[in-house]
Amino acid sequence: MHGYPCCMPPIQRREIEGPARVRFAPSPTGNLHVGGARTALFNWLVARHTGGVFVLRLEDTDKERSTPESEAQILRAMEWLGLDWDEGPYRQSERSDVYLDAIERLKASGHVYAAWETEEELETQRDNARAHKQAPVVRGRRDWTDDEIASFVAEGRRPAWRFAVDVTGHTVIEDFVRGEVTFAHTAIEDFVVARSDGTPTYNLAAAVDDLEMQISHVVRGEDHLSNTPKQMMVIRALGGQTPEYAHIPLILGPDKKRLSKRHGAASVEDLRDAGFIQSAVLNVFALLGWSFDDKTSMFTVDELIAKFGVARISKSPAIFDLKKLEVLNGRYLRMLSEDEFSDALIGHLERSGFFADKDAGARARVIETVPAVKRKLSTLEDYSSLAGWLFRPLEIEAEPWESLVSDVRHSIQAIGGGLGRLEQLEHFTLEDIKDALQDQLHILGEDARGFLEPQRIALTGQRVSTGIYESLVLAGRDEALTRYRETLGRLADLWVA
Ligand code: GLU
User: Judging by DSSP bridges, how do beta strands 53-58 and 112-115 pair with one another?
Assistant: First the structure.
């Protein structure tokens, strides 16, 4: 027997010490989605946990794709999530001078060189490399003659500027999540830092900003891992000290495929509009790659701030499961006080246009329904299907109507019997209604479902709604009896016919 232990001891990973200066650096080219929001949250938590600073930086150098709408949407979504920033938003589009200055310094120190190759020439170079089974890594020519350069200039060509990667070396990232990651420089091309039109590339601008903004820790998606050695080279070439890095895992759907719209992984605002509340969304985002232990699934924001740390971020992909969010959202909704719940619900209904075609009393009526719906909703958007019947005239949905019609005699007996009892009630209260209907149920000798289902359909027109007794109280005597009579009338027509 060899003495290999059956299980490796858990790796003791490092935590970030002291106040961290972190940043969230979205490109305003679309909405804030699950992945970006998770990155923002992790950075915010690092800042709040360590008593540090959370910087917001908009990487809007891509003029074609960056839009003010996207920028506004990202800021709104962050505000809704409660991710307040301490500095910024800085905009890269307003910082060209800083990048141009850095590029000049890199030229002066010989860390970058003018690359005169055309796109076609580069493609030929890459094809040749592939043909020789080598990685298509671009190394520009650096021995252009003065005559060649003069003729390029004469024909209007402008050079891009490439970083002169030291191919003999390698870059080591001591990543908080992934451990030691080593990149051999032979695999890293002489990346462009300034395009031929003079504009800086992402790798240049991000590195310069991280240096200038004194970012101590870069927490970002694993998809950026291959950019990191390039950015470290730029920072070192500028004489700076590199930040530390934590590359957080990819997010997949429950089917283990890369997260996409198919998984309901919409933007943060889409999640809000689908009736999820901030506390639940934040909680689920926090668990995308991070965990406190194997059992705790609910955290308040304060608990997250107290407990969060990069040492417990997993290397394996995280799974975003909308079903889990629904369950958690329901739990969070039930934990709200009635006032908090009412505020959240009214806010949601206002945004979704629920009140647009309703009278002035509708808000008050919504508030009246809160005790009847609070325990039944998974999302605020479920409200309409559960209680919307109360705000419109009786409309019996096709399927419940079929079920009444399938045994007209029985339906008339149940609804007629219920109506008879309700008409006699002196007080239309929950208790009296319940007693009367229960009593009728016993007289008819029916099972509860067989009797109560038709009551619900007669009143609400649907099979799923607020509880039947509560629904009767909410409708009030006149409205309830009118609806019963209407349903009964329609059934009687059928019976006679
Ligand atoms: N602007 C980059 C993005 O949206 C972020 C890069 C970074 O965090 O360094 O993917």
Answer: unpaired
Query: How many domains would you assign to the chain?
Result: 4
For 122, the domain range is 99-194
Query: Would you say the CB of residue 206 lies under 6 angstroms from ligand 1?
Result: yes
Domain limit, last residue, from 194, 219, 245: 194
- CA-based end-to-end distance of the chain: 88
Residue 7 has pLDDT above 70, yes or no: no
Q: Do the Cβ atoms of 377 and 333 come closer than 8 Å? A: yes
59 lines ligand 1 (CB under 6 A): yes
User: What is the whole-number distance in angstroms between the Cα of residue 376 and the centre of ligand 1?
Assistant: 40
Q: Which atom belonging to ligand 1 lies closest to the Cα atom of 231?
A: 9
* pLDDT value, residue 11: 56
Q: Are residues 105 and 224 in the same domain?
A: no
Is the same domain home to 343 and 461? Answer: no
Residue 403 CA to ligand 1 centre (angstroms): 56
Q: Decide: 220 in ligand 1 pocket, CB within 6 A.
A: yes
- For 206-215, what is each residue's pLDDT tens digit? 999 999 999 9
The answer to whether the predicted template modeling score (pTM) of the entire model surpasses 0.90 is yes
